[in-house]
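Bench log, entry 3. Co-assembly request; chain sequences pasted below exactly as received.
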Amino acid sequence: MHLLYQIFIDPFVQMGSAPDLFAQTLWEGMVAGVLYSLIALGFVLIFKASGVFNFAQGIMVVFAALALVGFYEHGVPAFLALVLTIVVMFILAFAVERLVLRPLVNQAEIILFMATFGLTYFLIGFGEIVFGGDPKVMISEQLGLPSGSYQIKMLGGFVQFQKIDIAAAIIASVMVAGLGIFFQKTRIGRALRAVADSHRAALSVGISLEQIWVIVWFAAGIVALATGIMWGARSNVSFALQIIALKALPVLILGGFTSIPGAIVGGLIIGIGEKMGEFYWGPLLGSGIETWLAYVIALVFLLFRPQGLFGERIIERV
Amino acid sequence: MFYREAGQYKTSYAADQALFPILQDKVGMLLILFAAYFLVPLFASNFVIDSIFIPVLVLSLAAIGLNLLTGYTGLLSLGTGGFMGIGAFACYKLSTYFPGINIIVLIICSGFFSAAVGALFGLPSLRIKGFYLAVATLASQFFLSWCFIRVPWLYNYNVSASIEVPSRTLFGLPVTGPNATSITRYVIVLTIVAVMTWMASNLIRGRIGRTWMAVRDMDIAAELMGIKLLQTKLLAFAVSSFYCGVAGAMMVFLWLGNAESESFSINQSFLVLFMVIIGGLGSLLGSFFGAALIWGLPIVMRNAPLVFGIPVTAATMEQITFMTVGVLIILFLIIEPNGLARLWQIGKQKLRVWPFPY
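Structure output for the full assembly:
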């Protein structure tokens, strides 16, 4: 009885009695959610266009962030460093297409998945040799990102909004809107969607798969860079960051592997659910439930909608 | 010329359905077993047994477990590390509660705990498959990892949150704990792995294995033929986890000697998955090849510069190892996506027609 009370009543009483704390938790959940969404977005982009479950997205985030900081440390001005990093991500996309995807075309999905593992290992080793293994500080100020926070008096208390978080949310929305327009309106975007629908049909109407793959990996690289900057500004840039890729996976289940809005909404649900769960229900189970709570949320969700929130209706289900 | 089944007539069904219907296979297997049982303990040093033979055998068993699930039933799982952990912790708890019972019995029994948990986490496989399922099994991995840290009962409220293997004897010979010699542990691991591999090969040749493969190849068709998907898939999860659990228990009790949550992390799951893919999906032999390659490669990489006398720091070497392993995985997938087992097949075919090219 007491346990039931603790699960179903107590957390809500707490929420009601301290609405400012509730708002703060909600906001933090949303911010975490935005970052999860960004990573999930990188996954979705690549999965949509090439059917590759890109495990290397996490390390791409780290790699991009490290490249940016690395260029800056070598005396390159911040904005030039940004441009150079984008060039690096393009080279990476090109190399991946040329050296990994093209020889593996038409292989089973799991083989491609494994190949991205190989890529992850390679990038970890390569990144550590080039940039060193130490954590680095993101050059957020030099890039013109705001720091500090707003204290807003609301709901009978103070709620803190970090400026960098607001910036992250704005950048994420701009990016998603941009990608949306790119997918819907441009010639390349349409080609991308055609490839996502059917590789063969796309080939037969003269769409170059190779080109599309480079573009898609490049786009994922840019998303990774944005994620890396945002995440790096909150904590340091280190190789430990790559595990956030694993955090994005439940988002994918929730939102569907092929849906961009799904990635966003899924990310927000996971982010908020995780923070709420940790804050209000966490003490019940002992701390650290963050690591698996997201997966459980996603699993419960799966029972009702196996295709995810916005996933395509046709899903291999049994 | 040397490897040819021509002329080996079978006169009974039993002979036709034997595990090794070809004489050369039978002889080869006996030779391998002979070498494993007598030559390795005689000639290999303790260090080599401890750092190569035991790990490869233990990991092979885990790879076989995952292969039963992923290679034969077509269900992708990333929870192997967690299931191995269940086996290890179950064995630890069992050995605390029943100190009198033979440790080998306990190691096998701990597999059943793992099987039960595996079947539970296999439930989502009834609704989803492919990568969705892989991510769902990650849930089990993270949840179990968390349990191994946060449930102090599992490690007997130890301050270091790790499990220490108690000393146990078999016929007066110490088999676990610090006093056990490498050779004793090696022989026990070898026996368990050999017997369980034999069981697995019979399992997949029989009705159960065929239903698994039917489900893998096309589940709807399998269902129409009267195969019950629920039972088949859950059984696959249970048997697979059983193997992983035993492997995990052996890993702690007969190889490492102590372990903590970190030993059964997500990286362990990925490592075993590598072994299965590199070795070959749907091949027991491939599991051994994969384990040997994935385990041996970093060791070779680390020691290669020492042999050639090239001075490199340990850290650089680590990074170069990472890079090379990554490149090799990709190269390997490009050259032979069906794994080492397929190379072995090709080799056998070449032997069969030798000295002719085809």
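Chain B has a mean pLDDT of 87. Chain B touches chain A through 47 residues (CB under 8 Å).
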